[in-house]
Amino acid sequence: MPAALLLGRSRDPHVAALAKELPRHGMEPRILDPRRFPGRTTLSIHLGPDHGPKVETDLADLDDVRVGWFSSRDGVNLSAQTAPSARRFARAAATAGLLSLRQAHRFTWVNDPWAAGRSSDKTLQLIHARDRGLAVPETLLTNDPVAFTAFVRAKGQAAVKSPSGSTGLPGQLRVLTQRVTAADLADAESVRLAPVLAQDYVAKRTEVRATVVGSQVLAVEIHSQDHADTRIDWRRYHPGLRYDRIELPAAVRRGCVAVARDCGLAYSGIDLVRTPDDEYVFLEANSEPAWLWVEDETGLPITRRIAALLARTAKAKPGKERDH
Question: For residue 153, what pLDDT band results from cuts at 50, 70 and 90?
């Protein structure tokens, strides 16, 4: 039976869900826990003038692996013997070595880690969305307090977030979207310290998480305006928040699929605003979307669709279409 390599902790609920589903699609799940590398495991990739790359490792059994599922939620785990001054260097080297399995073993990652890294550029996502005919909010990326102040005053209010999300914050801390008005500009000088992404604030009827899996779109409508806590950012969870399965208009579905492909993503979580006038406005695309909450709330079969995508990818030749 061909195997799928799942890069993540066995106790990660998304890894566990895929490991349970994959055998139904003729795939054996193999879990590679990145926290075991390099401190507790070894990896060698030998390339010679007369032979291609040969891999020896006790990280996981790589025989018959045809596809990999990539998650960056858990990174490599350095040995306690690594000097503090060398930890940043050692972590980068270990991560690069681990991801070299992609080329050495010649299987495809879903999502490809390099594509996932590139796709995190929120400005590029907006450009792709606009090019594909999706509505996007007017946006300013800046660390200039004068430009930021002028933008907010011209709009009356703006949605402000970090262009890099919560990357770099310790633990489970997150940076969520804030609504800024002209009355909130006393601290505008602080944007000099790090760029912000300011957008024309889009009036909301509801919000939508559209999970793109290949050429399929599974969408859930989030009634974020029902509660004060979630009106600015639905990720400020409220226990009474309502979710409904919806079918997006065909043009919006096509746009979401096209944006994911433009970003190099085989699957993606795309966030949209549904306005009071029933227009759908693109906000951003996530390369590693959590999806189990969508299944729990709506029953949408996202795990099954991703497992099927992995099985199709395993059968396809590199570079060929995998998502029909």
Answer: very high
